[in-house]
Design brief:
Elements (H helix, E strand, L loop, with lengths): L32 E4 L9 E4 L2 H8 L11 H4 L7 H10 L5 E5 L18 E2 L2 E12 L5 E15 L5 E9 L21 E8 L7 E6 L9 H4 L9 H4 L7 E6 L1 H9 L16 E4 L3 E2 L2 E2 L2 E2 L11 E3 L16 E7 L5 H6 E9 L11 E8 L9 E8 L9 H5 L3 E5 L4 E5 L9 E5 L1 H4 L9 E5 L2 E3 L2 E4 L9 H7 L17 E11 L21 E2 L13 H4 L18 E3 L2 E3 L3 E3 L4 E3 L17 H5 L7 E4 L29 H12 L10 E3 L6 H14 L3 E5 L12 H4 L9 H11 L6 E5 L2 E4 L6 E4 L1 H15 L8 H4 L11 E4 L5 H9 L2 E7 L3 E4 L15 H19 L8 H20 L3 E7 L7 H5 L6 E6 L22
Parallel strand pairs: 1-3, 1-33, 6-26, 27-32, 33-34, 34-35, 35-39
Antiparallel strand pairs: 2-3, 4-14, 5-6, 5-11, 6-10, 7-8, 8-9, 12-13, 15-16, 15-23, 16-22, 17-18, 17-32, 18-19, 20-21, 23-29, 24-28, 25-26, 30-31, 36-37, 36-38, 39-40, 41-42
Helix pairs in contact: 3-17, 13-14, 20-21
Amino acid sequence: MPIEKFNFVSPGVQVAEIDRSGIPKTNENIGPVVIGRALSGPGMVPVRLESTQDLYATFGPPHPGGESGDVWRKGNRAAPTYGLYAAEAYLKNSGPVTYVKLMGNEEAGLADGASGKAGWDAQKAVGLFAATAVSGTGVAVCDQITASLAAVIYTMDASTSINPLSVSRNAAGSATNGVLTPNDASDSRDLTFSIGIDNYNGAGSALTATFDFNPNSDLYIRKVLNTNPQLTNTTIYGSSNNLTYWLGETYESSVAESVCASRSGAPTQVPASQFAFIFKDELSGNSIGHDVKESTAIVAKSGWIFCQDTSQDTASYAPESMQTLFRFAAKDFRGDWDNKHVKLSIANIKAAVNPTVYGYGTFDVFVREADDTDNSMKILESYTNCNLDPASSNYVARKIGDQYVSWNADDKYYDTYGEFQNMSKFVRIEVADEVRNSAINATLLPAGFYGPPRYLTQTATATDTSASISVQTALAAMSISGSTGVTDTGYTGQTLGTTFGVSLSFPKLVLRQSGSDGVATPKKAFYGVHPQGVFGRRDNGYVDYNRFLSSQLANDYTATSGETGYSFIFTLDDISGSTSAPVYVSGSRGVANDSLRGTGSFTTTLLDNGINNFTLPLFAAFDGFDITQPEPFANRLLTDKTDTTSYEYFTLRKAVDIIRDPDVVEHNVCSIPGISVTGITDYLVNMAEERRDTLALIDIENDYKPRYELTLAQAGTNPVTLPNVNSAVTAMRTRGFNSSYGAAYYPAVQISDPGTGIRLYVPATVAAMAAYGYTDNIAAPWFAPAGFSRGGISAQSSGITATGVSKQLRAIDRDNLYEVNVNPIAQFPAEGIVIYGQKTLQATPSALDRVNVRRLLIYVKKEISRIANTMLFEPNVQATWRRFTARVNPFLSNVKGQLGLEDYRLILDNTTTTPELVDRNVMYARILLKPAKSIEFIALDFEIFRSGASFDD
């Protein structure tokens, strides 16, 4: 301590304490990295997980696959999530694990329709429109039909045609006055539709389907029609026994709302005979095909949030002229999960207390589960007291974060943009330039937002409006913007009005109208999006309103001129009614004195009366997968492919590039469970060679293949293909590996899924990852993850519970595999299932042809490199050398004491770091190691002696 720290006044002794006993921070553990699919969680970014709880919270538990059902709505659960099983197996004993969830990506610059495009493209999308309103001069005369999109049917075969047959009043519904009652306690099914699907199975057969739009009905459309796009995959199911169509979006609440014109109370009465049933072949927004979803993964975003009206000229009010402030974007690629599960609320909007001193008001941001209610909110995250002042610590971008990453294809690295670190796990902020540059009026507050884009309304007028022409005849003759057939109606006996026309509109999300609907007090109401829909519960089709529309659109989040418009533009300025009974009436601000606010103040009329909350959705996220594939990354899709001919191939190689840089992602083991195609596994091993601090675990070809890996011809009468040892050995010998940074395992093993008890086969690398985790837990990396002590995977303590192997290996099979450096997984009658080898892929005989030695070197090099990093830029003198040796020698001694080394020596003196090297700013040390070898072969001689012999002899 410097002498100045003491206060000398009179003679005496002063004593001070200097605490040098602080425990230095230990280095973080380095675990494996696993690449694979997941049903939720951020995609194409490395995520560090410390425990199984972290894994489940971020990506969900592993899924055994085998599910079909409503794949369009519920997502793809057909194939197991092998990567999650591997991560779980390791985390049950050790940690951490870094997980990279796969999302569909593609090579930049591919033309539309190219084979390497991500996503999918159907032959056509057919729109079913239901009439929502009828006007006329009499019961028998019809002037106008306004129809709303009720469902979309996709076809993968151009010869498949879908035709409307009839629409009728269901007998189970209300019998009087044709009243439609979706809220009816008697569970009436209202309108019943019948359609014909020609060539629905690829064999020329016709299907007649009758359905309605009531989720409580046995005839509910999603129960009647196929909702699994995978059944259209002719590669797997052939061309004669598969389906050629699937049901995509359905808009139950929109149909009920528009037909009934009410969300609560008595529905509007509509004459039972007047229901239109219109099909639009090739559904599109003018020239934009709704069936084209060829796109890399897309993040979800909200519409732009804009400010309140600061003018008193209500007659000229237009919400689109208001200053935009900010919008939300998903922090990561999560696909449809964000569309389904996350919504945002702007809450407790307050004006500045003293605007003359500080003009910025405040508001809260809630990240909410999409299926909650305003009376019982499920808040995932909350950010309170936010403002729009860039200089404030409460600036909304500073509190939530605005950073995002963009892939640099040249450097194979993510560039990071944005000023403020992301604090939210779910969203980030995009701020308008005017806000970022402090160029707005400080009194502006968030007041409304733009809804998701939808296709523009399309209209047509009858060419013949003579009184003798019926509605049905007119519809059949009309051309409705790309339609090849609009036919049947329920307008029996009706004739045209003099200006008969048809208007086809597209659905929009339900918005809260009443401030008292479903809440204890209007002050708890959040206006804007109201996901509960019109059935008194969450709208089953909520996600369908928020889906990505088409890859042919210029912009997925904002309106495209001539193609799409905003489904709505919501603003609190449109709240009408009274402060005790507020209601939302779109456009009411544009008419003087028609809105609650009128010419009054936004603050005193609305905010001070608790009308200061609104909710908005995230929309347009897309996972980039081919929806018709049960396993988006099946090996059969990767064989003989390149980055430009297969998005799956490109995605996997990009995932490897994401973990390539040791300064970005630390790992000591890496794997892509289930992928055996040489182009990918070679790439993984080469990456490990380049880094020289990790070991690539690979699955090999000719192993167990589940049904989704097989074409119809390959499958034959067998649903799976069993391992072929001879073919596997021949293929590995041909590949000619010679790398100590890779290890191969074979064959697949059967496990019991811990969550469901379902038994399934998982790749051999899942078993290897379990053994590595168990070894790291009970021993150290330099112990072999093999044998009955640490390689046994039948016991639950290993991380997985193996119940069988896909191939019972004989001794000769194990020998043949080991000769080509493949580690066999064997099953023994008494001992169970065990990993029975620990070779690396190095063909040259040396200590490094064993996994335990390679892992020892990876561990020692990494830890000593960490020590060396602390010496950088220190004086290159003997005192620094002594500090280095003083830290390295105890470390190596500890490794030796734990049986990792037979002996070692560290040399750092003038013989290694010569004066010439000192002049070149280099400190050079030699570290000599004798790795401890594992016992792989035991020879025992049993010698038999006669009874009179002496053992001492």
